[in-house]
Design a protein that fits this description.
32% helix, alpha/beta, 183 residues, 28% strand, Rossmann fold
């Protein structure tokens, strides 16, 4: 006959706690492009030129780490917003545009854990005339978004929603600001 030792219930409780922690924290998923495109973005005017977009400073998401905004995803979100708002006559995928919009993600602050997930992102937006090399507009932006505790069961899910929300806010503010410049 085999008897249960006192170590077995402790081991079971520890493994159960670990399993619940993994279930509730979830795996990190990157911010989705479509979720970073603002629904209500609009341009006050349309520029008759072409533009290409380049994003740097983003990071790929490690599934065991925290959600991030990748360069390609944010680049695509900004590009789709420019197309949707008809801010420029044409948005090019290569460096052949009349203007280049460079966006640098230079600071992202995320909470380590918690109920609500508030994310702050700082970016630098620069619009450059490709022919002359002249910087025609430059702006530093700081955006914040909070995903409430009821927006997703897992903290990782809330953090992904917060990353998407902050990306959307920054995208909308950036496009709204630079469309006002005189070209």
């Amino acid at each position: 006959m085999r008897f249960m030792t006192t170590a077995q219930p402790v081991r079971f409780a520890t493994l159960s706690l670990l399993a619940w922690t993994c279930l509730l924290s979830g795996c990190a998923t990157p911010a989705a492009t479509e979720a970073m495109i603002p629904e209500t973005a609009s341009a006050d005017k349309t520029h008759p030129y072409s533009v290409n977009v380049e994003v740097t400073g983003g990071r790929a998401t490690d599934p065991t780490g925290t959600p991030q905004i990748a360069n390609d995803a944010f680049d695509e979100a900004i590009t789709k917003t420019l197309i949707k708002t008809e801010t420029f006559a044409k948005v090019k995928r290569d460096k052949a545009g009349n203007y280049e919009l460079s966006v640098i993600i230079f600071n992202v602050q995320q909470p380590p854990y918690g109920g609500s997930a508030s994310v702050t992102m700082e970016t630098g937006w620069t619009l450059t005339n490709q022919l002359t090399g002249e910087i025609v507009w430059q702006q530093a932006l700081r955006s914040t978004y909070t995903a409430s505790s009821d927006s997703d069961v897992s903290f990782s899910g809330r953090l992904t929603k917060a990353m998407e929300g902050v990306g959307q806010n920054d995208n909308k503010e950036g496009v709204t600001e630079f469309v006002r410049c005189y070209l």
